[in-house]
Recover the amino acids of this structure.
């Protein structure tokens, strides 16, 4: 299927306290995104740290997001994992709770075959009538959705697209030509947002837009409308901040950056650790052109 997502989507961080999720702050972050023009919120993607959350916490966060959103923007819930049975269960739960779409990362650690990927996505898509997005991020999972495999996955009726974060533009181009007209291509790597949009991508799913949703939205809009001069100018302005967002493993820098903007973002859960001070200085400097940064 095509046409599910167009524009900018934010891969939301999850603010934690020592006792659990800080729902009030998560709500503030949702409002910040909606005010910035973000088209969709991705909850429980990699940036949200679901790997260190309990099933009860995940369900509670999904419930809260639906209630707080009140249908204003699309909500996409991350449900993928390395246990297909659990991924199917979470997909059904997300559907029942009111998600607009599903994001399913490739299985990690068990490193399935390409045929295994096809069967995995068939199982997840079969568990819901919602649009499903594949998430290809081999640097984290150890599994790469090859273009010819995505061509097969794209034939699943409710497969909406692929969030591409392989970092390989040659592969992205091959995938794009194979799925064109079947499902959509989304950028899942902020450094490649603009080039992916230029080869037919319809949306970005962005970590960077946690910090600067309005700027990311404007760049995406310009690219989609064919104003590449303006899109390049905006992308150039975001270059240093994009780099800062990945100076340590995501979402460590994004959480630190949100704290610098005044949100009580908390710190990542172990084994992730707070941003190192020399990197915090880089984040502060990169944020300064866009907002008043707190010490």
């Amino acid at each position: 299927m095509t046409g599910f997502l167009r524009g900018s989507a934010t891969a939301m961080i999850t603010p934690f306290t020592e006792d659990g999720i800080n729902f009030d702050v998560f709500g503030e972050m949702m409002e910040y995104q909606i005010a910035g023009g973000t088209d969709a919120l991705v909850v429980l993607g990699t940036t949200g740290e679901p790997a260190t959350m309990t099933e009860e916490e995940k369900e509670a966060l999904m419930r809260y997001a639906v209630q707080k959103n009140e249908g204003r923007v699309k909500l996409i819930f991350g449900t993928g994992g390395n246990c297909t049975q659990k991924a199917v269960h979470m997909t059904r739960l997300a559907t029942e709770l009111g998600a607009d779409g599903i994001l399913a990362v490739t299985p990690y650690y068990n490193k399935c075959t390409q045929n295994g990927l096809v069967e995995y996505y068939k199982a997840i898509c079969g568990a819901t009538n919602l649009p499903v997005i594949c998430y290809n991020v081999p640097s984290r999972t150890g599994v790469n959705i090859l273009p010819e495999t995505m061509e097969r996955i794209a034939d699943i009726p409710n497969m909406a697209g692929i969030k591409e974060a392989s970092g390989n533009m040659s592969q992205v181009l091959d995938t794009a030509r194979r799925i064109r007209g079947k499902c959509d291509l989304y950028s899942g790597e902020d450094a490649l947002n603009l080039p992916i949009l230029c080869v037919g991508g319809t949306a970005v799913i962005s970590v960077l837009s946690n910090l600067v949703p309005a700027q990311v939205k404007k760049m995406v809009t310009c690219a989609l409308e064919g104003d590449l001069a303006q899109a390049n100018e905006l992308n150039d302005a975001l270059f240093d901040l994009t780099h800062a967002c990945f100076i340590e493993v995501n979402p460590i820098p994004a959480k630190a950056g949100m704290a610098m903007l005044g949100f009580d973002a908390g710190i990542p859960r172990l084994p992730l650790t707070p941003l190192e001070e020399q990197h915090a200085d880089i984040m502060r400097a990169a944020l300064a052109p866009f907002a008043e940064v707190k010490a």
Residues 16 and 22 are 5 Å apart (CA to CA).
